[in-house]
Amino acid sequence: MSVRKRKRDPAAYLSDDLIVEILARLPERPLRRSKCVCRSWCDLISGPVHRRRLAHTDAASGFFYHANADGSWAPVTDLKFTGLCRPPVEGGVSPTPPLLDQEFAFLPPSYTRTHVELLDSCNGLLLLRYYDASDELAAAVYIVCNPSTQDYVELPPLPLPEASHVHDVIGGGAAAIAAVDHLLQLEQERRQRLPRPAALTFDPAVSSHFHVFELEEERSPVFPEYSPFVTAVRIYSSETRRWVVRRSGWNYHVAYSGEHAYLNGFLHLATTDTENGVVAAVDTEGQTWTPTRPRLLYADAGSGHARELSVYALEDCGGGAGRWVLKHRTRSLDPSGKVWFGKQHRLVAIHPDCNVVFLFDSRRRSLIAYDMDRGTTRVVHTFTVATGKHHFFPYIPLYLQ
After folding, report:
1. Which domain of life is it from (predicted)?
2. Domain count, the chain
């Protein structure tokens, strides 16, 4: 009697790296279904090792954007989305990717959409800020959400000065109580004057937890015409679910330019000191403050009449030190030399694979992608609004829990 040999699954001979390469080419729905094939595939897709690789190759990646003539913030109802790999439909607008709730309908009805603004994006998560129009003294509420999975988290209120600490400083008695109340009222009113800059940091390949930074700024009383400098940072951790306040640990005045990036546990802030190319950094605990950190790309638009695009990489030299290395420099954006980098171009973002720079061309009213390897450009999206005040938020869908 012959015994039939059980055939081994051919997929068992494939290495994990090869399987990941195959999975990375799948659209979002088949990728999610692939988690049900077997336990090993589920671990590959859901695990932190390959999470960034699978997310970055998703065809639904693109930019949220809005355009305001005065450059002010805009509610989420004014947001639009353009994809990197999806051809635009009639009118020049890219279709919304499947599973992406662009209307933010998953937020509670109490959040009036016209009073919710998008502040930042980081690796699939968005940072929102909500203002209660019915209460002018109410503090703004921060919300972190994933529009692809429709999950959201409302952050607790920012900490006020502790009454016990103020009491110890000014002494006891009825006068102390009145002083404490006055100080707390001043702090609450001060927080409502101007919205503070805020940033979201999140790396799903390292941890499922995120951090939110809020920068406290002050203007110099001697030179009020200069940009305000950072005096303190409030940091929220989703792991501890608490805010902490850290006074600035930089040994010089850092004036935040509005651009930032997150890498290797540090929030990197571009400063207004463009002449010296200063990039300041602080870790997620507010314990380490440094001018630079390793393996970060930085693009400089240059100044003067002959403008050029320069891309630097901050490389680790060992012992915590780093040095900037020039990776690419050009004045021409195409091989023919007919498209020159000029004042009409504004830096928007650098592709995660670090070989494509996204620029906004105010003359052509277009978002363009410049390939540093090939020296070529392509138009990603052409806008219909005649204003240069476009705000862009890079978005990479995160479907993995």
Report:
1. Eukaryota
2. 1
